[in-house]
Amino acid sequence: MGETPTALGVALAYHAAWTGKDMDRAMTYIADDIVCDAPAGRIEGAAAYRAFLEPFSGTLTGATMIAAYGDEQRALVMYDTASPRVASAPGAECVTVADGRITYSRFLFDRLPFAR
Amino acid sequence: MGETPTALGVALAYHAAWTGKDMDRAMTYIADDIVCDAPAGRIEGAAAYRAFLEPFSGTLTGATMIAAYGDEQRALVMYDTASPRVASAPGAECVTVADGRITYSRFLFDRLPFAR
After folding, report:
1. Is B92 exposed, middle or buried, given 0-12, 13-18 or 19+ CB atoms closer than 10 A?
2. What is the pLDDT of residues B6-17, one digit of tens each?
């Protein structure tokens, strides 16, 4: 067994993957039984999580990390994203990590620009 | 001159004040020339910032800090709020602090439940 990465390390690697449109790699950081509390409600399981994130990931034209902090178990990141639908759509995620994978995510973004 | 508080210390004191409906105290942590990038656009100056936050602060029935991190200059917090209009309205703020006051804030929440 290699070194266990910190929660922040996992959050940053996951972020780089999904904003880089590499969802296969992003999912290597997501636990099979992930629970994600997102603006529209709870998402349970890796398949549902991928179905939630992949369509948005595919449309990205840019992403910038605003701030990222964490400790051994949890990380908190805020970033901005750009896509054809919404030029600036910031997000924030507070993730809990175990064994190198995200087991819980509180996922926050403003749905209003996407609802218009 | 006393010790300069960390950005995280300021962010936590400010959070406790505004979620405790003590906007006078909350404003002691806000720079006169604060710039805040909020979902609806940029807010400039302490008076405009207070006008943005005070109506929501007054309706709160609860608030819980989810995670808070920071260093000397910046802090990143995520919290949940409850109010009669929206039972769970999480927010995230990335604040830059100078001389004990927030000079810049990236303020994120989901406007959709409030727009309905």
Report:
1. buried
2. 999 999 999 999
